[in-house]
Amino acid sequence: MENPTIAQVINKYLDTVKMARSVNTSRAYANGMHVFTAVLKENQVDPEHSPASILTEDSASWMADALKDYAPSTEQLYLVATVRLYEYLAAERLAEINLPRLRLLLRQRSRRPGQRLPQFPRDEIEKVLEYVNSSLYKLSDNSDERLRALRDRAFLQTLADTGLRVHEACNLRRGDVDWNEGRAIVIGKGNKQAVVRFSRRSMAAIKEYLAARATLDGSSGRPLTSLPLFARHDKGAGKKVKPITTTTGRNIVNERVRQALGDKAEGRITPHSFRHYFVTTVLRSSGNLKLAQELARHASIQVTQRYAHLSDDELDKGYHDIFED
């Protein structure tokens, strides 16, 4: 395609993102490009008719200036998407781009997002886990309701004891799990393959759920290894064994939190709260930052260090000894 328009190039660029990145990343980049298109229009550049060759580093700086009303984290994400677009332009020789100057301009104009310490209600998460493992957690005689209850217990226990992200847990298949070793191979953030370990209690909960699901799985006509670890049990699924979605995963957390803690607690705990819980549990028990990094699969130990303050019981004790005597 000779002399493609800006809009055409953006669509091609987003196609390459879809092939190489996760669904969530692709969606975020598409949102960033929607903002970039609006910024161009505000500066009298029509993306539908203007050739991509007119884009310069200065066009990108308009984007940086326009993002000041966004949260710093969103600003950084959309700027990364913009830089990647310009790298695509340069690689495909669609525009004359000075990439070092581009990065310098954006660095000068962008804010640095503040470091926020992970916050989550640890005690409440433990109450939710206690609830789903107690006699108060009713297992109905209705087969679908019983399967949902067993699934939700196994799902929550898995989130708490593995550190899996919600989409990783939802995407697990039965064949991904090594039942003898208590491990699973997952495709995690950045499309990276990793080993995740399961606790005895999470494995026990999963096995109880799968035992109750045996008839459904056996009649599916598919190899057991290809079936989802956590399946839907609703009218829409019928007798088919379909994987739960991330939306279902969030709904499971919301429903069981509401049952365990009451309506006012809903929203305070998300699936990612269980990942925070996992990291701090490892740190509190071991004090080993590197171990926590590896088990949480953090690319940088700086990310794990953000949790270290939460595991320092000596600081808590020292503070209360001083101020509450």
Question: What report would you give on this structure?
Answer:
The chain has 325 residues and is mainly alpha-helical. It has 2 domains: 104 residues, Orthogonal Bundle (DNA polymerase, domain 1), CATH 1.10.150; 194 residues, hpI Integrase, Chain A, CATH 1.10.443.10. Helix content is 58%, strand content 4%. The protein has 15 helices and 3 strands. The chain has a 3-stranded antiparallel β-sheet, with no helix packed on it. β1 and β2 form a beta hairpin. α3 packs antiparallel against α4, α12 runs antiparallel to α13 and α13 packs across α14. It starts with 5 loop residues before the first helix and ends with a helix. The relative contact order is 0.09.
Give the beta-strand count. Answer: 3
Helix percent reads: 55-70%
Largest sheet composition: 3 strands, antiparallel
Name of the CATH superfamily of the largest domain: Intergrase catalytic core
| Overall outline | globular
Q: Structural class of the helix and strand makeup?
A: mainly alpha
**CATH architecture descriptor text of the largest domain:** Orthogonal Bundle
**What's the mean pLDDT score?**
87
